[in-house]
Amino acid sequence: MCTFQPIKAWRYFVQALASCQQFAFLTPESQQRYHSSQQSGNELHDHSIDTLQQAVYWSSWKSEREMRGDLYLPDFSLSDKELAFYPPFFPTPPAPKAEIEASSDPRLARERTSWYFYLSEISLRRLASRISAEMVGLQTKHPRRQAYLAAAAAAVRH
């Protein structure tokens, strides 16, 4: 038998996010190093720890945002713009050598496929968040329904 406790579950996701704040990959310096190594093709750093930490971070972030919306909980006192977007980076992909090994190992191939699903879900959530923020902005700018619909139609055409 199970007892669902959504408020308690949400609190655990918030606590997980608070714990994630100590992860090194969240520092601007770490992000800069990662992007520099990607551009230069220099793969000296083993990103496996970053990948695991980022998976925990993103899963906690996504789950907290979903539960907050479902439970109609008040949001943090951030601006609408800050709340509208997910963190400005994507999780670090698994090491390239894993992709070579994946061609011969079905388990690694499934893992890689799930990784692409994970990245696409993040992309779709970011897109939905940006669309929602844009719609809220249009509604604020055009409070009358007809003006709002005209502005939304004009935005879609461009």
Task: Summarize the structure in words.
- With 158 residues, this protein is mainly alpha-helical.
- It folds into two domains: 1-76; 93-158.
- The protein is 72% helix and 0% strand.
- Helix 6 packs across helix 7 (145-157).
- It is extended, with a radius of gyration of 20 Å.
- The termini are far apart.
- The mean pLDDT is 79.
Largest sheet: none
Question: Helicity range of the residues?
Answer: over 70%
Give unreliable regions as ranges: none
Structure annotation, total helices: 7
Termini separation comes to 53 Å
Order of helices and strands: HHHHHHH
Q: Globular, elongated, flat, extended or rod-shaped: what is the shape?
A: extended
Return the domain count. 2
Strand portion? under 5%
Find the structural class using helix and strand composition.
Answer: mainly alpha
Report the strand count: 0
Mean pLDDT: 79
Radius of gyration: 20 Å
InterPro entries: EcdB-like_regulator (IPR053181)
Short description:
The chain is an all-alpha fold and 158 residues long.
Which terms summarize this structure?
158 residues, EcdB-like_regulator, mainly alpha, 2 domains
How would you summarize the topology of this molecule?
Elements: H1 6-20, H2 28-40, H3 48-71, H4 80-84, H5 96-102, H6 106-141, H7 145-157
Helix pairs in contact: 1-3, 5-6, 6-7
